Amino acid sequence: MDRERTGIESGLHQSTKRISTPARSHIHPRRRRAANGRAPVWISTASIIISALALLPLAFVIFISFTTGWATIVQLVFRSRVLELLLNTVTLILITLPLCVLLGVALAWLTERTNLPGRRGWSLLATAPIAVPAFVHSYGWISLIPSLHGLPAAVLVSVLAYFPFIYLPVAAAFRRLDPAIEDVAQSLGLSPGAAFFRVVVPQLRLAMGGGALLVGIHLLAEYGLFAMIRFDTFTTAIFDQFQSSFSGPAANMLAGVLALCCLALLSAEVATRGTARYARVGSGSARTPPLRRLKGAWLAVALVLPALISALALGVPVFILCKWLVAGGADVWRAADLLPALEQTLLLCAVGALITTCAAMPIAWLSIRAPGPMIRIMEGCNYISSALPGIVVALALVTITIRYAQPIYQTVVTVLLAYLLMFLPRALVSLRTGIAQAPVELEDVARSLGRSPGQALRATTFRLAAPGAAAGAAMTFIAISSELTATLLLSPNGTRTLATSFWAMSSEIDYAAAAPYALIMILLSLPLTWLLYSQSKRVAGR
Amino acid sequence: MRFRTTSVFTRTVLAVALCCAGTVFASEKDEGIIVYNAQHETLTKAWVEGFTRETGIKVTLRNGDDSELGNQILQEGAASPADVFLTENSPSMVLVDNAGLFAPVAPATLSQVDPAYRPSHGKWVGIAARSTVFVYNPSKLVNTGLPKSLMDLANPEWKGRWAVSPAGADFQAIVSAILELKGEAATLEWLKAMKANATIYRGNSAVLKAVNAGQIESGVIYHYYSFGDQARTGENSRNTSLLYFRHKDPGAFVSLSGGGVLASSKHAVQAQAFLKWITSKPGQEVLRTGNSFEYAVGEGAASNPKLVPLKDLDAPAVDPSMLDSKRTVELMTQAGLL
């Protein structure tokens, strides 16, 4: 549930970046550099500090492995329980990812390339499950079928909770495809079906890979979903160890193995990206691809799929939630905890989103205005830290603050730092798009009128990038609103958020009392879902 | 025009966020005493309510699991923000006590608690007690009959027939009692058999619910989960029965919930007052009248009349100050349960 929606952003980002390229490229690179001079020192310094912070959790895992000593590592890592967890985690990923890809691509094709009745509505319904936190999906299913558990349940619930991460970027990619390439393939003798697999599928590879990476990271990081349906992964096992021994060596070693899994996933995604290039050259613009006409039985089948998926992914959690809300009556809304939890959640979200967006600004500015190898490394650092599960980040921060930074231990500062490390790339992606759309000339003019570099930035680019910043802040806000693991471990004494309250209630099997918290979390996420949906439409220019 | 709206928007957001940040930081001051609470939240909240009403002292809770909070206090050492530590079971009290982090409990508090339910050294006191039970679904239990001892559940005929929540402190306390009564080798063997035999759930409530729903025949939990559910709707316990092992069996283990004041507490007077209130007549009365259904341990304090009297449980003699949580977790890790 941490890292809910780590952002289709990355998928969307690929598209926005490509679109913004022509707008930038009319400025000759050399001229651009000359116009800018060197990047202001404070921006570079801030970027380096933030990127170094991002490496903190990973550095901690490495450090603790060295200090633990080989003998203990062998004892704690090379045991059958770890093998069992590894097997569980790997099978989960190997089964869930292909199913998610299949489902996402099928739905995207139906809503984008066929004459399916009510395509816009189905498209929205395929995006909407993102608004439901993963652990609420689990809560719905476990209430519906109490005996649900183990691998099949884990696959079922994770596919339903996470397929939109693939649907969204793939649907956006479908909208951008140039039908001329398919025409060429068919003119060279391929049947429409063969042309689809030969020409269309490879063009979706980036979107599928990016989406699959996102789903994979969620599968590795998720706690609540799997804890509720009794399926053990590394994250749930780390949590168990944490409950039994706080941040002892056993928990830290499991975190190390989990971090390795995440890095493996990252490099697998890079390896599958490929180098093939599909671009349109020459003048004019691509025409709108023709819609495939579905008829008779095919149309019926085509309607059943999105209807069924919406019923399972949206209908089940919403229906169960309503059922518990009705069963709980007015009493559950009178819980003394509800209002404080909402207040504290909103506070953490607002402050967290603001800080994260501000911290992303220097890196975003540098990556657009002064790109280079250094900035690429910095972006990489943030990317890696955001791929680490919340439990790993939190465990690192608990141990570091308790040993070396007592003054910020158990304060809101540490929680916000964790949010910053986990969610910075979301803010970064939106901000970058915003800054890329602000013409650099305005900065130059402001400078020529006597403003200092900092003043010039504030007066021009930062103002123009404000919508991008707002979008990034919104993404971070929503991500924080349903974050569970890091909040549980790091929050100051007496803090209760919607997610932690929901978790406390549902752990006691008081499902009715947990329902209001789930409902509020969903309501908070709806605007983001709408934003993602409309953004992916806008990117496609439709 | 667009510029202006954006900047007004940005300024508003900034102003709101700064106010928020201000309140977040301000709220950290003036929190009265901090209690690291591993007891059931509803029970501790009832205690806090009574205490604050009477004394005006504010209490902030940090909720967690016994061993999580115990180990956290250990790591925090003298810098721990905690003033009071309340647990569900004794092993974590022993852990903190062995690290020398408890201040002696005020004599007036000690004298309120039945000597059978507090360690003689007086570094912490019992605040409540709970009994291990074997919960089963009579319509599902295969006719091999009920087990005579908790140790029987390691036998092959119990494979796949009982449920347990090993990540929780409750079951870990039961294991620590087995460790104390039967020794290390026998305990490890039992745990390994349990890894093969038992179905793992997360939380005793989940075990009770599964047994009630007939997903599994039986489980090992504490008594009050069932009584608590009966007092509410009974929807998770109406198909279940309880078996008390008695006969000084490890499965008849009565676990003592503990409370102690940290030596590092900066509000020692208020912290001692809180512990005194919990063990006093009105504090123990909360156990008799509330929905916690844990046993009262105060001198002359009565437990809920619905419970089997504590004295009738024929529990094994286990010195609560000997229970070793660290070794228990190590053994459970070794057996692949954690």
Question: Would you write up a description of this structure?
Answer:
The complex is a heterodimer of chains A (542) and B (338). Chain A is mainly α. Chain A is globular and about 65 Å long. Chain A has one domain (9-273, 295-539): MetI-like (MetI-like fold). Chain A has 28 helices and no strands. The two termini of chain A are 32 Å apart. Chain B is of the alpha/beta class and 338 residues long. Chain B folds into two domains: 33-127 and 255-307, 3-Layer(aba) Sandwich (D-Maltodextrin-Binding Protein, domain 2); 130-253 and 326-334, 3-Layer(aba) Sandwich (D-Maltodextrin-Binding Protein, domain 2), CATH 3.40.190.10. Chain B has helices at residues 2-26, 41-55, 66-76, 91-98, 107-110, 169-182, 184-197, 204-212, 224-231, 268-279, 281-289, 325-334; strands spanning 33-37, 59-63, 84-86, 102-103, 125-136, 162-164, 198-200, 218-222, 241-243, 254-262. In chain B, strands 1, 2, 3, 4, 5, 6, 7, 8, 9 and 10 form a ten-stranded mixed β-sheet that branches. In chain B, strand 1, helix 2 and strand 2 form a beta-alpha-beta unit. Chain B is globular. The chains are: A mainly alpha (542), B alpha/beta (338). At the A-B interface, helix 6, helix 15, helix 18, helix 20 and helix 25 of A face helix 1, strand 2, helix 3, helix 8 and helix 12 of B. Chain B: It holds the Pfam family SBP_bac_6. Chain B: Keywords: Ion transport, Iron, Iron transport, Metal-binding, Signal, Transport. Chain B: Fe cation binds at residues 40, 88, 224-225.
CATH superfamily of the largest domain in chain B: Periplasmic binding protein-like II
Oligomeric nature of the chains: heterodimer
Helix fraction of chain A, binned, reads: over 70%
What shape does the CA trace of chain B take? Answer: globular
The major β-sheet of chain A equals: none
Strand content of chain B: 5-15%
CATH architecture of the largest domain in chain B: 3-Layer(aba) Sandwich
Annotated CATH homologous superfamily of chain A: MetI-like
Count of spatially separate domains of chain A? 1
Distance between the termini of chain B: 61 Å
Can you identify the CATH class of chain A? Answer: Mainly Alpha
Query: Structural class of the secondary structure composition of chain A?
Result: mainly alpha
Give the CATH topology of the largest domain in chain B.
Answer: D-Maltodextrin-Binding Protein, domain 2
Question: Strand share of the residues of chain A?
Answer: under 5%
- Rg from Cα of chain A: 24 Å
Structural class determined from secondary elements of chain B: alpha/beta
Fraction of helical residues of chain B: 40-55%
